[in-house]
Each structure stands twice: as C-alpha cells, then as structure tokens.
Amino acid sequence: MKLIFAIVQDEDVRRLMDGLTEKGFSFTRVASTGGFLRSGNTTLMIGVEDEKLDDAIEVIEKKCKTRDRIITSPTPMGGATDIFIPQPVEVSIGGATVFVIDVEKFFRI
Amino acid sequence: MKLIFAIVQDEDVRRLMDGLTEKGFSFTRVASTGGFLRSGNTTLMIGVEDEKLDDAIEVIEKKCKTRDRIITSPTPMGGATDIFIPQPVEVSIGGATVFVIDVEKFFRI
Amino acid sequence: MKLIFAIVQDEDVRRLMDGLTEKGFSFTRVASTGGFLRSGNTTLMIGVEDEKLDDAIEVIEKKCKTRDRIITSPTPMGGATDIFIPQPVEVSIGGATVFVIDVEKFFRI
Ligand code: NI
Ligand code: NI
Ligand code: NI
C-alpha cells in the first residue's frame, strides 16, 4: 500500500477528484495553502495498492499537468501609464507536487 | 516511531480524541473532506512509539467502529408520493480509514 | 527525498515559513488544531532532499524553539479574591513536534 500526498492547484482539484473516482481510487482532501505552488492549493491524500500506483500517477499527470493559457489582461499602453489596453497574455497554470510514501499497515474499520 | 493517519467521521472525532488522550497518545487534527468516507470527516495524525501501536489501533477500532443506528426518516407513502410517513430506517455510521507510516526521525523542540 | 511534518505553534508559523523560504525549502501549510501543542497550531509539510535534511531541521529548531516570555497577567490578590493585580508571569511559548518520513517517489509536474 502507498499513500500519495498530491499538492495540486485549486483549479485542478475537481478534475483530479473526478478522474480518481472514475478509476476507483479513494482519497481525502485536506485544505492547504501556499508554499509548493504559487496560488491556492489543496492536498489530496490518496491510498493506492502497490500495483495501482502507476495508474494513480497517470491520472494526476493527466489532470494536473502544467499548461499555458491565454488570458486577456489590461496592459498599460506604452508612454501613457494610466491608459490600459486589453492584451492577450500567456500564463502557466496547473502543476502538482507529489510525494509517494510507503504504508506499513493499512486497514478500514 | 510510527505516524498514524486516521480519517474518521466527524461524528466520532470527539470520542476518538478523548480515548486517545486518556491513553496518553498525542495527536493533531487536520480538517479534511470527502473521499474515503461518505460524510464529513476529519484526519487525525497520531504519533506513537512502535511498542504502543497496537494500543493506539485498539482505541481507533473501539471508538470508530461501524455500527447501525435506527433513525426516523420521512418516507413517501406508497401510491401518493406527496404524503410522507415517519419510518424507522437503519443507517450505518462510523468507520475509519487508517494508514500507519514508519517515522525515520522524530523530535520535539 | 524526505517529507517533514512539522506541527508548530501559530505564533511561529510566519517566522518558520520565512526562514524556510530564505534557505530555498518548499512547503505547504495545512490547517490543524489542538493535540500535540497546547494552543493553536499549524502543520507544515516540507519536502527536502536527503542531504539538506539537517539544514531544514536547523531552521525549524531556530525558529520554533521553546522560550520563556514574561507576560503581565491579572492575578487575584491574596485573601480578597475579587481584587486582581497585574503581575509579571513567565509563560513558555514556541515548541514544535516534528516527524521525518522517507519518500519513496517524488515528482513535480
Ligand atoms: Ni505497501
Ligand atoms: Ni520507528
Ligand atoms: Ni529519499
């Protein structure tokens, strides 16, 4: 048995939880903030059988992978700093920090 | 030293914390939601000496074991779906998901 | 790779996070309550390379070490229990409970 601590961006939590549930993985969600990832994040504790570890990691990679997004951000016009023009800007979102821990004993009651 | 992650139902947290304290176990409580258990849950991190692991597990089993409870739930009367009659219904409460992790180094400062 | 669970007093969290960031350590912060430490506490999950473990522990020791503080507390005057006189009282603050766990697999995506 392994216990995965996956710290993911808030934006990806719902997608990740849905993906894990679809594949039959159990998890609990812990509120966490700051640190590993720039914006708001959440820590999922995911319990997995040894032989399903790679499947679980695949779900995390798929649902949380870093990707670029074009957002339209007001940008100050050159020269006149109080005039802002909406400009497309590329930002990086997603990403996860993942720790896999060996579990010595696991049980449900 | 072992670190126990016990995910328990909110309903059992107080009982479990009292039971652990009575036996001299130290723990911290982390807010968690969804996943392993259907309703609201809480994760306790419990630090235990190797030789006291079984004692700690015994406390968890005793305080969180799944049990049935009879609740009175309004049930639609057969045929007329807008008439509800209070009926005794058996629901399952309690339960816990428990991970025991080996601790490589432990200290208090 | 190691994962440190450091349960520290709320009062020390900011100092500890600043100290860890200065030294280049990554962490996430989990809301926790009661148990290991008397007053409000916070759990930091800190991921560290094996060879930097001692450095990280040093930061925790430095930022969270138990120290005495003199506070002025209203104390009942001997005899007349409804008269309170401000008295300097020494209280112990700080302290941390620290678990170091071995990480089997670690990755960022
Ligand atoms: Ni295992
Ligand atoms: Ni041990
Ligand atoms: Ni390692």
TrEMBL record, chains A, B, C:
One of the Pfam families matching this protein, by short name: CdAMP_rec
Signal peptide positions (record): none
Name used for this protein in its record = Uncharacterized protein YaaQ
